[in-house]
Design a protein that fits this description.
Layout: H1 3-16, H2 18-30, H3 35-59, H4 74-95, H5 101-110, H6 116-149, H7 152-174, H8 177-201, H9 204-227
Length: 229
């Protein structure tokens, strides 16, 4: 592997990985609820989507292709997704009493999730579109950059850690340290699992299906915390 490819991979990670952490920090701590915070957060999301595409074309000198969905790995996706779904649900019922519902509701209102309808619309987007975009960013782009720098299983771990970083900041804004630790461990396990699925099947769709299981149970829990029921 050439030194140029390794340097490019490192630069790509340096340019991309910090962006969501900065965006979430500004949105949750800098000036939550303001137009600036929302705009900055949105700009960071755009950066996450655009940078891999531009890098693929201008640095990697590759054509843009859209791989077709395939059944490859779907059985593993469904199995891992089910396990993750059940683990998150069990964690909520075992440790949910550690969560301050009032704080969660206040923070949700700060970011605009003030009604059940808005929340449900956001949940649909997050569970369908955003989870696919995260696979495109964190599995296709970030994992493959990690793979260029280290052995494959270390790349699985590293990409899982990178995926976890901005979630730690988000969790800290809503929960105490116990839930933050548990949640961050769960995010890491999920991210590493999806990277492993991508490594095994070279297919973001399988990882996406597994990812959706996690998002569905998380947004169900979020609804209960914010609106009751």
């Amino acid at each position: 592997m050439t030194d140029t490819r390794k340097r490019n991979a490192m630069l790509a990670l340096l340019l991309l990985v910090p962006a969501p952490s900065i965006g979430i920090y500004i949105a949750a701590y800098g000036s939550p609820g303001t137009t600036f915070a929302k705009g900055f957060f949105f700009a960071c999301k755009v950066w996450l989507i655009v940078l891999p595409l531009v890098w693929h074309i201008l640095v990697d000198k590759q054509r843009v292709t859209f791989p077709r969905p395939t059944r490859k790995g779907m059985a593993v996706a469904a199995a891992t997704g089910t396990v993750i779904f059940l683990a998150i649900g069990a964690g909520y019922f075992l440790f949910g009493h550690w969560i301050d519902n009032t704080l969660v509701s206040e923070k949700a209102k700060e970011v605009g999730l003030s009604s059940p309808m808005l929340y449900l619309l956001g949940a649909v987007y997050w569970c369908t579109v955003n989870s696919l975009l995260e696979e495109y960013v964190w599995r296709w782009f970030v994992f493959t950059r990690c793979e260029a720098l280290m052995p494959k299983m270390l790349a699985v771990i590293a990409s899982g850690l990178f995926f976890t970083l901005h979630h730690i900041i988000a969790l800290t804004a809503y929960f105490d340290w116990r839930i933050t630790v548990l949640g961050s461990l769960g995010v890491f396990i999920g991210g590493a699992t999806w990277s492993w699925i991508y490594l095994t099947y070279r297919n973001i769709y399988a990882a996406y299906v597994s990812h959706v299981f996690a998002d569905v149970i998380i947004f169900w829990i979020g609804y209960r915390l914010i609106f009751g029921g």
